[in-house]
Amino acid sequence: MKAPIRNIILTAVLALTGTANATEIVPGELVPMQAHTVAMDGYTAVVYYTVLSNGDFQVVTSAGPDAGVEGEMIQRIEIVDPGQTVHYTLHTAAGKSTQFQFTAGDGALVVASR
Fold first, then answer.
1. Could you say which of 16, 49, 54, 101 would form a disulfide bridge with 112 (CB–CB 3.0 to 4.6 Å)?
2. Rounded to two decimals, what is the model's pTM?
């Protein structure tokens, strides 16, 4: 099951063009199921969300190593209430990480990473 998920994620990463620079905050307003990619040092992450029946946002961040980089797939799921901001750090290989901030607005999610 991990291989098909990895293939889907890698295909999505290759197909998307909204890559962010990992050294600066790049906010982007998303709509449900619209992916946002984040280039990290040796990894690439894909972030998307869905709106749950109670109005909360389920945010999925999936990251994997770039070609030629050793590492494992990482996935994190966050539930964000409307009006709430969630911060977390996604740790990748050899002590490297990227900070994410998700802010749930009126029907959209603002994603910032650095």
1. 101
2. 0.70
